[in-house]
Input
Amino acid sequence: MKDRLSIQYLSSLIIRIILSLVCAGITYFVWMGLFILMADSIGPLMKGFFWIAAPVTTAMGFATGVFVHERVTVTRKATFPAVLIWPLLGCSAGALTVYWRGPMLIVFGMFAVGTASVVLRELVLRSKES
Output
């Protein structure tokens, strides 16, 4: 019985991660599209704003995926800001660690550390529930 529950939990976790990755990908591509469209016509201050907004919009995508999964499956009743804080910290840390190698590479850092933050959130909440 316990193995069955752990397999159920793992499958739910994998679905949650995939859904959060899809939502993060969508929000990142929206950000990228806006940035590419506006890059030539905006000044350096607005470009800086766009670079700062990249981890925020990507984190909102990660959080949306987790939030939607939790609402549809009725597993938890967390608020969106409570879900958002984990991927926001992860995406920001990922972007900051990779930015010095080239700003366009932040996507790899954001997605790697953002995904890790979603997994870490699930493990922390799972340990609190048991």
Remarks:
- The two ends are 15 Å apart (CA to CA).
- Residues 31 and 54 are 7 Å apart (CA to CA).
- The chain has a mean pLDDT of 90.
